[in-house]
Structures are given as C-alpha cells and as structure tokens.
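To the wet lab folks,

You asked to see what we're planning to order before we commit. Fair enough. Below is the target structure as tokens, and below that is the sequence we designed to fit it. If anything looks off to you, flag it before the synthesis order goes out.
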C-alpha cells in the first residue's frame, strides 16, 4: 500500500478595506520566508475548525476581531508531493468586516495594498498562488 502523507492545515485571511485594497503582512526577518509578504493567518490546531483558527490567528497576529459569519471561503493552495512528509495546505478566506485597529503584533509589517500591486510584492510560493486565485475572482 502507498504511504499516504499527513498534511498541515493553515488558514489565511484576505482582508479587504472595501476600497480595492487588501491587507498584506511582511514576515519577520528571523522566520522562515522572512521579509516576504503573505496573507496573515496561521496553523489550525488540533480540535479547531479552520474558521475558528483564523479568528484566533488574526486576533493574535493583527489584534483585530473578525466574526466566523463574516469569513467567506475563497480558494486554497497546496505544496507538491516533493514538499516532505507533511505538505502544507493553505485555505484562504475573505473578509470585509472587523473591529479593532490592525497592527503587526508578532513582528514584521502590515500594509494595505491595491489588488494590482499584490503581484509586485515578493511572496512565498503558496501566497503567489493564493493571490492569483483571489485576484482572478475580483472584478476589473
């Protein structure tokens, strides 16, 4: 029987200000993919649903509150078979409502970026794929 790998579920947020800009997070220099821009989010812990994990992650990472009911599934991206024993699958959700002031609480930086400018930011491979899917769904 083929050895079927386990996988790591990661969630990410495409937060829109409603004016054509999306929140991007620059990873701290000391972390994996340091200095690259990503959609904020993090790992789904055991016993969590993806949306509950995303609510927790954005509170920890950005200091804002989002409601589960305000999150909409958008797309996903996954590492290939050569990624190792536990490939990452990132589930991207969109949201336009939150409370609190956005801040980079775990380091790095945050910026509101126009859709067409997201492609210009250096990003990790899976965030490149997520951005392409997100922007393809947005009206011109």
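Sequence we intend to order:
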């Amino acid at each position: 029987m083929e050895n079927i790998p386990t996988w790591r579920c990661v969630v990410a947020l495409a937060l829109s200000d409603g004016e054509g800009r999306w929140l991007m997070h620059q990873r701290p220099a000391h972390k994996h993919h340091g200095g690259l821009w990503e959609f904020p989010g993090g790992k789904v812990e055991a016993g969590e649903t993806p949306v509950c994990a995303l609510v927790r992650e954005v509170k920890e990472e950005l200091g804002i509150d989002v409601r589960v009911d305000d999150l909409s599934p958008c797309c996903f991206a996954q590492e290939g078979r050569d990624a190792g024993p536990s490939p990452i699958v990132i589930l991207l959700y969109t949201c336009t409502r939150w409370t609190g002031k956005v801040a980079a609480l775990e380091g790095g930086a945050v910026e509101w970026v126009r859709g067409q400018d997201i492609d210009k930011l250096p990003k990790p491979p899976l965030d490149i794929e997520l951005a392409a899917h997100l922007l393809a769904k947005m009206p011109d």
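Structural context that might help your review: The mean pLDDT is 92. The CA atoms of residues 112 and 136 lie 19 Å apart.

Thanks,
Computational group
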